[in-house]
């Protein structure tokens, strides 16, 4: 095994609050161990185009509190081809990079897995996505900030819903995962939660709204964007059709969920994982995602980390049922 001297670092896919804290931790830990760091802008796309530059401890000063990613991010079609990956490898070699730290979600790790099998390049990944949809970690970097943003928004929506005696359908992100919807639904006291992991029965949902406590002035339904019955507008349309007497509004929270200052939880998570990324490369780990399970650092092969997890904690669903009467 050749000794690692120069670590390439990039963020890829959708950004997530806390990515900057992870970048800072990776760079400073590498320097602590006398390693060089090469920053790569715009993920795999920038790797192919040679957007590589040297980083030092000062390059990451004053970023721990900032949302987004100073390395920028992109989704690359070219990297999906063997020719694109060959170009990326040649650029890394030209810049003396001999190992990579990738921060991103399942698309990032799928690319990393293929690249790591094709070329002699040790790679470890840090889970950076608001969706929390990766196996091998209890929480992903950005999830805590995103759910707090959602709860803050839904609290505000509740104020106006109460004033107008309205039903609000609030659509949250998560792609094909309902984990943002589930936790934020509990935390905001939603009357119902609609998620892709469970089959949505529109009639049962309407029943629930109609036969819940009559004296409730407002009702809030949190809908995960990837639900099998459709997103917020579709669910809203069904409810309006069924109950024309309800004053119904749909609110799509959208990309507001991806921005903002990372919470303390996300900053600490990112810092711990960033340190572990460099230490794990030094210890010979490759093609693995660094996670934290039960408060301990855990290593999961990329292949397994990307497997979609449809399991949802039934107790959390039960809690909604009990508490929203
Ligand atoms: O994966 C993060 C995420 O924000 C998903 O929740 C959402 O479906 C998707 O990215 C949106 O992607 P884009 O910013 O490309 O529209």
Overview in brief:
This protein has 325 residues and is of the alpha/beta class. The protein is built from eleven helices and eleven strands. It has helices at 19-32, 43-49, 82-94, 106-118, 143-164, 179-187, 202-211, 232-242, 264-282, 302-305, 314-323; strands spanning 6-11, 36-40, 52-55, 99-104, 123-127, 167-172, 192-194, 219-224, 248-252, 288-293, 296-301.
Please describe what this structure looks like.
The structure is a single chain. The protein is α/β, with parallel strands linked by helices. A seven-stranded mixed sheet has the order 3-2-1-4-5-10-11, sandwiched between helices. A four-stranded parallel sheet has the order 7-8-6-9, with helices on both faces. Helix 2 crosses helix 3, helix 5 crosses helix 6 and helix 6 runs parallel beside helix 11. The longest helix is centred in the middle third of the chain and has 22 residues. The radius of gyration is 22 Å and the shape is elongated. The structure holds 6-O-phosphono-beta-D-fructofuranose. The site of 6-O-phosphono-beta-D-fructofuranose (F6P) has 10 residues, from loops. The site of 6-O-phosphono-beta-D-fructofuranose has 10 residues, from loops.
